[in-house]
Amino acid sequence: MNKPAEIRQVETVPMWVNGAKQPAKSGRFGDVMNPATGAVARKVPMCDRADIDAAVAAARNAFVGWRVTPPIRRARILTRFRELLEAHRQDLTRLVTEEHGKTLADAAGSVQRGIEVVEFASGVPHLMKGEHAEDVGRGIDCHNMLQPLGVCAGITPFNFPVMVPLWMFPVAIACGNTFVLKPSEKVPSASVRMAELFKDAGLPEGVFNVVHGDKEAVDAILAHPDVRAVSFVGSTPIAKYVFETCARHGRRVQALGGAKNHAVVLPDADPDFAADALIGAAYGSAGERCMAISAVVAVGEAGDALVERIRQKAGKLPVGPGDRHGVEMGPLITKAHRDRVAGYVDKGVAEGAKLVLDGRGLKVAGHEQGFFLGASLFDHVRPEMTIYRDEIFGPVLVVLRAGSLDEAIRLVNANPYGNGTAVFTRSGAAARRFQNEIEVGMVGINVPIPVPMAFFSFGGWKNSLFGDLHVHGMEGVKFYTRTKVVTTRWPASDADAPGFHMPTLG
Predict the structure, then answer these.
(1) Taking the mean position of all CA atoms in its chain, how far away is CA 241?
(2) 182-212 burial code (b ≥16 CB/10 A, e <16)
(3) pLDDT, tens digit, 9 for 90 and up, residues 455-506
(4) Global confidence as pTM
C-alpha cells in the first residue's frame, strides 16, 4: 500500500495590531509564493472590515498620546529603529528575496534606500519647525505650526516590500500621526518584521499597525471615517481608483501610479557606458520596478551600435534564484504575471516589432517550476504598438528611433506617463534643454534610474501621480501635517482693544 504524501505545514503571517501579532478574523487566506521554486512559502490572511476596524481603532486610540509626544522623543525612537533595521538588514533582505524573487544584492540595496528615509525622518524636530514673523502689524506677531493629521494609512506594492513602506510610515509617525500599513499580500512578511523592530525601538502600542488582504481590505481602509490620509503606490488604474475613492470620502491622498520610463540616447553618448547602464535599469529586479527603463529612444546614428551592445550583454545575463551567487536577474513575482509578460513578447512580434532577443522559454535547472523569463529586446518599435503603450513590468526593453533631440522630447512628452526618464549625452547644452523641457517628475542625466535620495521627494507627473504631493522628503512632511497659522496680540491697555472695523494689521 502506498504511503500518503506528507502534507507540509506552512506558517501563517499574522497581523500586527496594538503592538502585538494578531490572527485575522476573516477566515480567508491567500498563498505567499516563493517565485524561484513555485512553492507556497506561507499563508496570509485576507482581512475583512472587522480586522481593519480593529487596526484603525488601535491607531486612533494611540494617537491621543503620540501626538503630544515631543518631536525630540519621537526622533530618538526613530533613531533606535534605524539602528535595529541596520542590525537586521540581512534578515529583511532574505525575506525580500524569498517572497519577491529579486537577487540578494538588489534586495539589500532597496532595504538600504528605505533605511535612509528613517534617517531623514529622525530629523523631525527640525523638519516640523514653523515660521515666525514679528510685527506683521503694530504689536502683532504671526507664526504657523505643523500639526499631525491623525490616523494615516499606506497601501504598498509587491516589488519593494521594505523600501516603499519605509517611504511612508516613518515620516508619518515622526510627524505625530499613527499608521495602518497594508502591504501587498504577495510579500507580507517584511512589514510584520519591521513592526516588531519598531516596537523593540520603543514605539508605543498602536502607533504602527499592519494588516493584510486584497480589495476588501483596501476598500475598508479607503472608506474608514477615522483614516485621515492614504498613501498608495501601484498601477495607474488602481492609483486612480484610490484617488477618486479617497476624494469622495474627503481623505487626503497621494497615489503613485505606473510608468513607461524612457532613456534618450544621443549620438555623442558613450555607447558602452549607456548600454551597461540600460542593462541594469531595464532588467534589474526582472524589470519589476516603477523606475525601470522600459523604452529607449535612440537618436540618429546612436541606434544600431546601442542595440547590438544591449543584445550582447543582455543575452549573457545570469538568470536564476535570487539567493544564488552570481545571479543578476531573478524570477517574476507569480506564474500569472510571468505568462502575461511573455504574452507581450508574443504581441510585439505579431505587431511587427523586430525581436532582437527572445527571453521566452527560459528554464533554470533545478528550478523548473519557478517563474522565470529571460531578457527580451525589441527594436524599431512604433508608438502605436502595445508593447510601447502598456506598462509591461517585466524584463522587456523596447527601442524606438528618433531623428533628433526635438523629436525624442516630443515622443517622451506625448506619453501619458511621467514618472522617470534619463538622457545619455556628453553635451551640457543638450542635457540642460532636456531637463527643462521634459514633462516628467524625475530626470537623470547619465543616470539611468534617477531615484532621489530620502531628503528629496519621489513622484512623477501625469498618469504616474494622482494627488499634489510626492512621498518622503519635505513633500512627505507636508503631506502628513496640516498648517495652523496663529496671529498674536497682547494689548497693553483697554484702549488698544480692536474696533468694529475689518482689521488690517497696519
Answers:
(1) 17
(2) bbbbbbbbbbbbbbbbbbebebeebbbbbbb
(3) 999 999 999 999 989 999 999 999 999 999 999 999 887 656 666 655 665 5
(4) 0.94
When pLDDT is cut at 50, 70 and 90, the band that residue 243 belongs to is very high
CA atoms within 13 A on the CB side of 333: 21
Domain residue spans of the chain: 15-257+464-485, 261-445
Asked if the model's pLDDT at residue 46 lies above 60, the reply is yes
Rounded CA-CA distance 231/240 in Å is 12
Rounded CA-CA distance 246/214 in Å is 17
Q: Are 434 and 264 in contact (CB under 8 A)?
A: yes
Residues 6+ apart with CB under 8 A from 465: 239, 254, 255, 256, 257, 418, 419, 441, 459
| Among the listed residues 373, 354, 342, the one whose alpha carbon sits nearest the alpha carbon of residue 298 | 354
Contact predicate 372/400, CB 8 Å: no
SS3 label, residue 483: strand
**15-257+464-485 and 261-445 have identical folds:** no
CATH 3.40.309.10 fits 261-445, yes or no: yes
Catalytically annotated residue among 152, 175, 246, 290: 290
Q: Among 34, 115, 139, 57, which Cα is nearest to 488's?
A: 139
Catalytic-residue membership of 290 = yes
Residue where the block lists cell 499574522? 14
Q: Could you tell me the three cell numbers for 284? A: 534589474
Average pLDDT of the residues in 117-130: 96
Share of the chain above pLDDT 90, in %: 93
| Nine cell digits for residue 237 | 488604474
Q: Are 64 and 58 in contact (CB under 8 A)?
A: no
| Residue 338 and residue 332 in contact, taking contact as beta carbons nearer than 8 Å | yes
Q: Which CATH class is domain 15-257+464-485?
A: alpha beta
In 3D space, the residue among 143, 146, 141 whose CA is nearest the CA of residue 131 turns out to be: 143
Please report the pLDDT score of residue 494 as a whole number: 62
Backbone angles phi, psi at 244, to 5 degrees: -65, -40
Q: Confirm if 60 and 185 have CB atoms less than 8 A apart.
A: no
